[in-house]
Specification:
Number of strands: 17
Number of helices: 8
Mean pLDDT: 77
Distance between the termini: 129 Å
Radius of gyration: 46 Å
Low-confidence stretches: 1-6, 32-78, 94-131, 133-143
Largest sheet: 13 strands, mixed
């Protein structure tokens, strides 16, 4: 009996199978020939002889595409070489493809190995590029136009830079104002609950700002406002009966409902101010860089001895010029040395918004 092999397209697995079959054929050539019972007695039998008892049944085709048995496959299945090849295919984990035309066309299954998951870098919170001096914790949007105190981006253009700045042009309770003709009344004293605290210094591109630790607050009109930060302007934004001062420091407070209260301390040329000097000693080298100080400050030393004040309702003095801010301007100025004024002037020669209309607002002052 002769055996005819039909070779599939050359693939690595086909080469391996062919070599294995060659080895098996060599072994079969040296073994006793397998013959049917009819051949042993010299009688001719029909070509469709039964398969040997030891031959394994043909592999079933996949259920998705059943393959109809044909005579060629039945004859090949009865072949002992076919049996050996099937056993070899089972050992290699191969299955006949649904499109198989001969028992020698095999497909080896492979299992894809999932790629290891990539490590996702943790994102850290981005630091604000600039902070509104009067709006604690509010970072300026990255796309916002850079406002200044002069030129084409000065106060006259603030309202045009963003819809959020509309109040800078249309507001009726804007700050600063020239404080005149206040009603002299027996006002409730402002209770300053200031204590020695750590602080950070930031040059935010508009002023020198100092961020302080928690625990500092004021109490006024039945409310407690927590101190968030303070910053400086040159010259003073407020005027008292038309007079401007060399500088002013604004101490910005916020209550639990988000309402703002600003205490303004006027700074007049004179002797050195120790708190101001401590802050200047910790100035950052770069704008936008917040530097932790190496010491603490007690802000009670920044307040005047006379705690009487003017008060009125106003706004932020920088964009977006939001209104509803409670202002308390200390009546007695605090002295600051010419050298300390010069340090700030090197950074910001002028960073004060022009005086706004009082618009008939009620102004009170302590007796």
């Amino acid at each position: 009996m002769s055996h005819r092999l039909v070779h599939p397209p050359v693939r690595p697995i086909d080469i391996a199978i062919s070599l294995a079959l060659l080895a098996l054929l060599t072994l079969a050539a040296n073994a006793p020939a397998l013959a049917s019972p009819a051949a042993e007695h010299g009688a001719e039998k029909p070509a469709t002889a039964a398969a040997p008892a030891h031959a394994a049944p043909p592999l079933a085709a996949p259920a998705a595409k059943p393959v109809k048995p044909v005579a060629a496959e039945s004859a090949a299945a009865a072949d002992p070489i076919d049996h050996l090849q099937r056993r070899l295919a089972e050992t290699l984990g191969a299955n006949r493809t649904p499109e198989s035309r001969t028992p020698y066309d095999m497909q080896v299954k492979t299992h894809a190995v999932a790629a290891p998951a990539q490590r996702v870098a943790m994102n850290t919170p981005a630091r604000a590029a600039a902070i509104d001096p009067h709006a604690p914790g509010k970072g300026a949007p990255a796309h916002a136009a850079h406002w200044t105190y002069g030129g084409e981006s000065g106060p006259q253009a603030w309202a045009e830079m963003s819809p959020d700045n509309a109040k800078c042009a249309t507001g009726e309770r804007q700050s600063p104002i020239d404080i005149r003709g206040g009603l002299q009344l027996d006002l409730e004293p402002v209770q300053f609950e200031y204590q020695s605290s750590g602080f950070n210094v930031l040059d935010n591109g508009h002023t020198v700002q100092v961020n302080v630790g928690t625990g500092n607050a004021i109490r006024v009109l039945g409310r407690r406002y927590e101190l968030v930060q303070f910053h400086f302007h040159r010259p003073s934004e407020e005027r008292i009966d038309g007079r401007a001062f060399d500088m002013v420091v604004h101490l910005v407070h916020k209550d639990m409902d988000g309402r703002l209260a600003v205490v303004a301390v006027l700074l007049d040329r004179g002797s050195a101010q120790p708190i101001v000097q401590t802050i200047w000693n910790n100035l950052p080298l770069e704008k936008g860089e917040e530097v932790p100080a190496r010491s603490t400050i007690d802000l009670k030393q920044l307040l005047p001895e006379d705690r009487r004040y003017y008060t009125y309702m106003g706004s932020l003095t920088t964009p977006p010029c939001s209104e509803g801010v409670l202002w308390m301007v200390m009546k007695q100025p605090v002295q600051i040395s010419p050298a300390q004024i010069a340090v700030f002037s090197r950074l910001y020669p002028m960073n004060a918004r022009p005086v706004q209309s009082a618009a008939g607002r009620l102004i009170k002052e302590s007796n």
